[in-house]
Amino acid sequence: MSLFGNVIRLADRVFPTTEAHAHCDIPCGIYDPHAALEAAQTVIRMTELIQELDLNDPASHHALARYTNTKEEHGKKAKDDLLIIWTDYFKPEHLEKYPDLHTLVWDACKLGSKAKQNVDMDAAVAFKAAIQKVGDIFWETKQ
């Protein structure tokens, strides 16, 4: 191995790189609440599947773990997508026109946490409905 290759390998060990996932902070204008709604629908579906399990059947335990993991991942994705729209897209003029927007986003995120933490169909459905309300405002601002 060359000296350069050894230096690079040493640098990788001393300063390991990490993977980053983010919507760009460049004002690209590509925002859409559809992905958040789809993720929230997955939370609803995973909640349904969890509720249908027979936990007396040992085979259901693996399914429970998988459904719970999927519910968690999609709940987080929905919240992340919603927060990107909230922090990167909405502007002060949108808040002037929709003064309850902050509360709607806050409530949606709180419902997302509740839907992730529990097997609560009411919370899961309310989470999606709250994202839909924010999405409706989003689309009104795009006109």
Chart the SSEs and their pairings.
Layout: H1 3-14, H2 34-52, H3 59-89, H4 92-97, H5 101-117, H6 121-141
In short:
The protein has 143 residues and is mostly helical.
Description:
- With 143 residues, the protein is an all-alpha fold.
- The protein has a single domain, classed as Nickel-containing superoxide dismutase (Four Helix Bundle (Hemerythrin (Met), subunit A)).
- It contains six helices and no strands.
- Helix 2 packs antiparallel against helix 3.
- It is flat, with a radius of gyration of 20 Å.
- The termini are far apart.
- The model has no long low-confidence stretch (mean pLDDT 89).
| Shape type | flat
The main pleated sheet reads as: none
Q: What is the H-and-E element order?
A: HHHHHH
Q: Structural class, please?
A: mainly alpha
State the total count of DSSP E strands: 0
Q: What is the arithmetic mean of pLDDT? A: 89
Q: How big is the Rg?
A: 20 Å
